[in-house]
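Entry for FNR complex. Fields follow.
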Amino acid sequence: MKKQITNVNEYEGIAKEKLPKMVYDYYASGAEDQWTLKENRNAFSRILLRPRILVDVSNVDMTTSILGFKISMPIMIAPTGMQKMAHPQGELATARAASEADTIMTLSTVSTCSIEEVASTGPGIRFFQLYVYKDRNIAAQLVKRAEKAGFKGIVLTVDRPFLGRKEDDIKNRFRLPPHLTLKNFEKNDGTGGSIQISHARGQIDPSLNWKDVKWLQTITSLPILVKGVLTAVDARLAIENGAAGIIVSNHGARQLDYVPATIMVLEEIVEAVEGRVPVLVDGGIRRGTDVFKALALGACGVFIGRAVVFSLAVDGEAGVRKVLKMLRDELEMTMALSGCPSLKHITRDRIKFACSL
Ligand code: FNR
């Protein structure tokens, strides 16, 4: 009999048994000492809930809108690369699960299904995550293709001028299995987007700076969300330079080790932003209570990364659907038991930092 999966964390253990070591390590690991990787989770356990009682919670409303796009819950899918290593349907399965759950999926630049293939799965609100390469034409073409394919936003990842040192990947000599390709860079994708993979791989531009954020706005009318903000000063700069949204992220602890957990810097950034643009957060989200804590600290929504790839590995589209449903149900229960019938009831006083834990 198939084991009953009752929470998001269980997928990781099953995925570990199922996936080749090289792939599991690539998905799971963090940079260097992996301090930030552990801290992304540990920090949530230092935040406690302060429920209110005797509030009518017979109906709990989790619907929200991000940049004007209505979604069923404040839980969205982060960009994670190369999903066909997890499951043959890869990003297509993730896209279908996201649309079914009425939430936003972010497609990575380094995906194993192309922008157009993901769009062809049917309607859905999707963002495209952009890495900017030395050849700016590549970024321009990708953005144009995403726009044409009906994507609704560009998530500009700014915390990867160089690839972080993940020592498991170095030991395993990680590389994309030969039967897979980074589909957005395939030569004949039939869309005129003929980018050669050899031109793109390893060519992310370390000179990327705020001027490029401005440049990006000249080539697209899509809103640009800056992903990888960890300080108030950069949040302010992002807004001054035209960002439509801010994603507080440490890249799932895969880039710079010993940066704080994202949940620990969220409040400082929310305060600096002063409601001018939505602040979103990712990193270590595995429970509905984590989502609640992020919202209480002022986030408008959260993104999940590893929870998606592990559930995809275990059970394809059904796995991702189940993860989204479990998080949704957990958030609903947390809200009900905390006396919050809607997202606007999740205020700062509903949580406290437990200093002595
Ligand atoms: C990522 N992440 C990421 N980010 C990005 O901007 N572009 C990308 O291609 C990828 N690829 C990627 C692959 C894998 C396997 C992981 C785990 C992560 C980072 C991702 O968007 C997100 O910031 C983190 O995954 C969030 O942390 P959790 O939910 O994995 O703890």
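NOTE: Residues 189-199 have pLDDT under 50 and may be disordered.
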